[in-house]
Amino acid sequence: MKHLLKLQDLSAKEITDILNLADQLKFERKHGIDHPRLKGKTLGMIFTKASTRTRVSFEVGMYQLGGNALFLSGSEMQIGRGEPAEDTARVLSKYLDGIMIRTFDQAEVEKLAAFGTIPVINGLTDYCHPCQVLADLMTIREFLGSFRDKKVCFVGDGNNMANSLIVGCIKMGMDIAIACPKGYEPDAELVKWGYEQGKLTMTEDLKAAAENADVMYTDVWASMGQEGEAQIRRAKFEKFTIDRDLMSVAKKNAIVLHCLPAHRGEEISAEVLEAHAKEIFEQAENRLHAQKAVMVRLME
Ligand code: CP
Ligand code: NVA
Predict the structure, then answer these.
(1) What digits encode the pLDDT tens for the residues 18-35?
(2) I want to staple 41 with a disulfide (CB 3.0 to 4.6 A). Which of 97, 206, 220, 288 is the partner?
């Protein structure tokens, strides 16, 4: 593994290795064992979209690994004024040991990787969010023990989260059911792939998707960059909420996950979010451990 651009590029074995290392790093951290495995290394973090979890967990993670992280605001860099990703990649490769980038276009991330000589980590694009799903998989295994015979139900927009969940869940052997409104389906190629694997179902019927689910997952109706569509989306997604009624058809001990930030009363009720805060905030914590594992594998 040279980069983390999208989960399709990783084998099930590579994902398992990252999750195992993440568990180990989490254990070491909890037991006060230092692990300065990236001493003297620097990660550049380019953000052209907002972030709380990704920014803080990468920066703290790098610090805990003995290295440094630089926050680079996309709008204040020359890339924000049109300097090509091809040149940015070659320049940053001279100073840094790795790049994390959060941006709109997946092609920009792929270009940085193609033209640079250092590992590139995708910290979210419109297309996918691989770091989040690695933390999600870590959390599922932590709470449910294994992936065997597990069903994940995703409710809402067929967005970057849905795309990465399809790949991550199926690669780890789980079934995934997606409930989304017509016209808001995940990426067509990924849907085709999911059907070919015999592990994906898609429906507009929320209860059919949630039936017997071990994991209930949702994300915002309007993602970053879609603020202008928020009102239309609110009408289209009105029913697409994880609430107590929907939880009644999932498994009794089902966990609830949300990548956050959450909009209570939209994609998730305040009641369900608070009832499942234990999982949801452990999931947020696991961003730190999973990304540290990714950085160790890519940069050590
Ligand atoms: N889940 C997630 O990526 O959060 P941030 O947008 O706060 O980084
Ligand atoms: N789908 C959301 C995820 C945020 C972590 C967005 O792209 O804004």
Answers:
(1) 999 999 999 999 999 999
(2) 97
